[in-house]
Amino acid sequence: MVDNEKMDVLFAEAQKIAMSAYAPYSHFRVGAALLCEDGSIVRGVNVENRSYGLSICAERNAVVAAVTMGRLKFTAIAISTPDSVDPVGPCGACRQVLGEFMKPDTPVRFGGSSKNQVNTTIGELLPFDSLHELRKS
Predict the structure, then answer these.
(1) Disulfide-capable partner of 110 in 33, 54, 79, 99 (CB 3.0 to 4.6 Å)?
(2) Domain range 4-136, CATH class
């Protein structure tokens, strides 16, 4: 169980790492902090490319980095978008990737530059996820 204090720490990590994002085209930095089952935190940032389709989101960057380190189970994720006042949730592609590695009740926090944050779960972000339904069989 990930408590509110741990989510605060995770979100602070996402805020810090967002400053390292490579976003010369959109000027929209994103940082993600992924809490692994072993308690470690893996960070990711968005990395843009002039061919937008080749850009990678912070959330997927963090997942790929974690998998590269042999970590496949995650217990929470926090996402920071400091160039937006309002919270901005993960895109559809990121929701799919997160759903691949996280249970529906996994906590997710995202927020922009204001104090306003959204606390939700993977299941709420990706309802009726067929992957989880197939795994029940």
Answers:
(1) 79
(2) alpha beta
